[in-house]
Amino acid sequence: MSGTLTIDGKTIPFAAGQSVIEAARCAGIYIPHLCHKPGYAPHGSCKLCTVFVNGRKTSACTYPAAADQNVVSDTPELQQDRLRLTQMLFVEGNHFCPSCEKSGNCQLQGVAYHLRMLDNHYPHFYPQREVDASHPDILLDHNRCIFCNLCVRASRDHDGKNVFAIAGRGINKRLIVNSASGQLKDSDISIDDQAAQVCPTGAILVKRTGYQVPIGERVYDRQPISELALGKEDNHER
Amino acid sequence: MSPKIKIATTSLAGCFGCHMSFLDIDERITALAEVVEFDRSPLTDIEHCGPCDIGLIEGGVCNSENVHVLREFRKNCKVLVAVGACAINGGLPALRNFVSVEECLLEAYRDGIGVDNPQIPSDPELPLLLDKVHPIHEIVKVDYFMPGCPPSADVFWTFLSALIEGREPSLPYELVHYD
């Protein structure tokens, strides 16, 4: 099935099998997102892409596009929701951008810039999760993980390795490594894997590659995420 | 001539970097001095904050004296602004939140390399450390936030110009940074 739907009053085409967010991207309309990535199975955890479809709130990344849908995305109410969701992600982890190697290239930060987030609004959790620096080439800082599951999906669906999983419940949920020791050094991951590259935050970092791009030339220094996310998706990473 | 706008500034658990960035407005400070007057600030000799229009707070809250100063500013300033990453989310000093205060103090004053006469300083003149570093909005109500580590001089200029002229401050994309 294909046809047209409207987003914020604009009529756009969609192809069979596309989700609302994919149809929007093809038509050059940015809907903020963190856990969605073209070519990856949808996940629906970050909730930033929440839109109204025919008057009902839903995730644009999991909702199938259909003929004559009325999608509403760019409203002050939805942007405010997105701001609060992003602030929740910031206080849940330890996002100290001034000392993070991903700063300037981080999608969480890029989305926050797009939303003009000036503060974190909520009290901070200051979680104390162990950093896994066991792997010779890859660092895992659990305190920056936003549970988008992209590394889980990358490893399972694209690398064929199944290195990562999410374990635990509620606020105690955490990213785990599927090795006998639970450490990254005892897993099959390598730096060429999509799982090592896909993290939208500074949770999974390739060692000895930090601070190589001058300030002013980093990804989101040059162009806002709202424009980059509509381009070739490869440009959107790292 | 209308009376000058009063601004107070302070550094709590800060590095003075935000104040330096403020001074990076360079010669624009002469234009600023035409319309504002500084109350308590590291740049003046005034000991306590009097009634002010704007209070600029740099740094998070790490000890008891920070709490007193922050409350004094809140009581006296019509508009209180959290300046920089530390005031907004604790900043890099909040990395000590993963270590107990006792461990921190023992490492620095008893077990550290080259420590002479090892003991944790305990004179009542010294403010006690809080168990954790906090952003200032967890202690008092904050009206505005200027992100950055530090916020650039243009952020200070854009923000203060708006506040002084009675406009709602807003930052363009290029000026929003957390690093």
Entry keywords:
heterodimer; A: 238 residues; alpha+beta; Ubiquitin-like (UB roll); Alpha-Beta Plaits; 5-stranded mixed β-sheet; 3-stranded antiparallel β-sheet; globular; disordered C terminus; B: 179 residues; alpha/beta; 5-stranded parallel β-sheet; two-stranded antiparallel ribbon; elongated; iron-sulfur (chain A); metal-binding (chain A); NADH dehydrogenase (ubiquinone) activity (chain A)
Largest sheet of chain A: 5 strands, mixed
Radius of gyration of chain B, taken over Cα atoms and rounded to an integer in Å: 18 Å
CATH architecture descriptor name of the largest domain in chain A: 2-Layer Sandwich
Low-pLDDT stretches of chain B are: none
- Got a strand count of chain A? 10
Q: What is the overall number of helices of chain A?
A: 7
Which strands sit side by side, in order, in the main sheet of chain B? 2-1-3-5-7
Could you explain how this protein is built, in words?
Chain A: This is NADH-quinone oxidoreductase subunit G. Chain A is α+β, with helices and mostly antiparallel strands. Chain A has 2 domains: 4-74, Ubiquitin-like (UB roll) (Roll), CATH 3.10.20; 82-210, Alpha-Beta Plaits (2-Layer Sandwich), CATH 3.30.70.20. Chain A has 7 helices and 10 strands. Chain A starts with a strand and ends in a 10-residue tail after the last helix. Residues 234-238 of chain A have low confidence and may be disordered. Helix content of chain B is 31%, strand content 20%. Chain B has helices at 17-23, 28-35, 64-76, 84-89, 101-109, 153-164, and strands at residues 5-11, 36-38, 52-58, 61-63, 77-83, 129-134, 144-146. Chain B has 6 helices and 7 strands.
